[in-house]
Write a structure and sequence with these properties.
The chain has 122 residues and is mainly α. It has 5 helices and no strands.
Length: 122
């Protein structure tokens, strides 16, 4: 039987793995953009590596976190990160209204994490 401490530790590890998966998803999205439809070798190799890393870390996280919550957080991190870093690194436009809606996604991701915490589940 697992204790509350073990569950909390596993949950914390799972959320850390999910954050890594999100970071690698950002790397994947940016690499795919830089690969120009996989015609640039270095970017294409980077995309493949980031893809494998994001899938691995996501699968580890989803051992503990419910798939609906985990996938939503992962996708949110990836989309917000790709938009933000794409704007900075790839000179892609980011309007004020787009930034607002990306902030809404961030708030949603934070609330999903809080809703998964043991204190809110009673």
């Amino acid at each position: 039987m697992t204790t509350t401490h073990e569950k909390k530790e596993n949950s914390g590890r799972a959320w850390t793995m999910l954050m890594f998966a999100g970071a690698f998803e950002i790397g994947y999205a940016l690499s795919v953009g830089g690969s120009h439809a996989f015609t640039v070798l270095n970017w294409s190799v980077a995309a493949l590596v980031f893809f494998l890393l994001t899938l691995y870390f996501l699968s580890v996280a989803l051992r503990t976190i419910d798939v609906g919550i985990g996938y939503a957080v992962w996708a949110g991190i990836g989309s917000v990160g790709a938009a933000a870093f794409g704007s900075v690194l790839l000179d892609q436009p980011l309007t004020l209204i787009q930034a607002f809606w990306l902030a809404v996604i961030i708030v949603g991701v934070v609330w999903l994490k809080l809703a998964d915490s043991a204190t809110l589940q009673g």
